[in-house]
Design goal:
336 residues, alpha/beta, Rossmann fold, Dihydrodipicolinate Reductase, domain 2, 2 domains, seven-stranded mixed beta sheet, six-stranded parallel beta sheet, 10 helices, 24% strand, globular, binds (2R,3S,4s,5R,6S)-2,3,4,5,6-pentahydroxycyclohexanone
């Protein structure tokens, strides 16, 4: 296949960022179709993909013969309805996180993929492609500093849009840590406890945050995640790993330091789009390379399900204030 012809479903900020990425920085792919019900958003997206055709729904796009692979960037609650026809068509898909809003729908997707007999769903956990996380995972696995004892994770957003509700602290934002902590430690998360920190009065009224999410892995590692979406100053995702013989930290800004008028300052990211730009590029390039051969090049639908199951325990703890336990279905051998 010369160029992978990609349809993008959902052209909000993330979908549009992927369109620009695929049409400018990624090799071997181009955008041939978009599916977006909001006329203004669709029009804005087509500026970056003038060759693409707009379709009303995924079924029409698949039937057009213009699509070899699909990238889904709508909110999680719309994913299942879009993924099912794609599984039936048997073409590769990159689905942004969270894969679905709840465990039953995540399991339905896995079951449909298993039944179809081929791994075609990659879930958009871009942190797995971030240089720092890759290095940290190797550091943990090598045991050069001895055993890993604990993780301190900082996840801070300057602010969030109007449609971001309180549950999204866990379901949308901490969904990343449910994946990456399991990935770093190579061990599933068995319990989650959400603590309310002192409320930031600058947070929108509907949000009760920051929160501290304590997740414990089966291997006994506790990760303490500060989830904070009203920090005002910038976007930070920092991880500190505590080992028997040392400490490793990733994610501090590497922006320019400026000395001026008796002060020094360093620029900081203000959005995940720039903080993880390289990771997104590497994620999408790996997906395009694999999808061109009909497969996937990153986290599977099962990884998507494992994060959703962690989110479910996290939401239970957010409501009860207690430690809640995560339970999982047995992994089908298909995903080994
Ligand atoms: C957003 O959806 C993301 O995926 C970002 O990585 C995360 O930092 C942010 O909190 C989410 O809302």
């Amino acid at each position: 296949m010369s160029q992978l012809r990609v349809a993008v479903v959902g052209t909000g900020s993330m979908g549009t960022d992927h369109i620009i990425r695929i049409n400018t920085r990624i090799s071997g792919a181009s955008i041939t179709a978009i599916i977006e019900p909001d006329q203004k958003r669709a029009k804005d997206a087509l500026v970056h993909a003038p060759e693409a055709k707009k379709f009303e729904n995924i079924e029409q796009a698949l039937a057009s013969g213009l699509v070899d692979a699909v990238l889904i960037a709508t909110p999680g609650e719309y994913h299942e309805a879009v993924i099912m026809p794609i599984i039936a068509a048997g073409i590769p898909v990159l689905c942004e996180k969270p894969m679905t809003p709840d465990v039953p729908s995540a399991l339905r997707i896995c079951a449909a993929e298993v039944k179809a007999g081929k791994k075609i769903i990659q879930v958009g956990f871009m942190r797995r492609f971030d240089e720092g996380y890759i290095e940290l995972r190797e550091q943990i696995a090598s045991q050069r500093l001895g055993e890993l004892l604990a993780l301190h994770c900082t996840h801070r957003n300057p602010s969030v849009p109007d449609w971001y509700g309180n549950d999204m602290l866990i379901a949308d934002s901490v969904s990343h840590e449910f994946d990456i902590v399991r990935y770093l430690t190579n061990s599933p998360i068995v319990s989650v406890e959400v603590k309310q920190l002192k409320r930031n009065k600058l947070a929108p009224e509907r949000l009760n945050e920051p929160i501290l999410v304590l997740m414990e892995t089966e291997s006994g590692i506790v990760a303490a995640v500060e989830m904070n979406v009203s920090v005002q100053f910038g976007y930070q995702v920092i991880t500190e790993a505590v080992f028997q013989k040392g400490v490793a930290e990733i994610g501090r800004s590497s922006g320019m330091t400026t000395w001026e008028a008796g002060r020094s300052s360093q620029s900081e990211h203000t959005t995940y789009i720039t903080r993880f730009a390289r990771a997104y590029d590497d994620e999408i390039q790996a997906w395009v390379n694999a999808a061109s051969k009909g497969g996937i090049g990153g986290p599977t639908a099962w990884d998507g399900y494992m994060s959703v199951a962690g989110v479910q325990a996290g939401l239970a703890s957010l409501r009860s204030g207690n430690k809640e336990f995560a339970t999982y279905e047995i992994k089908p051998t298909f995903y080994n």
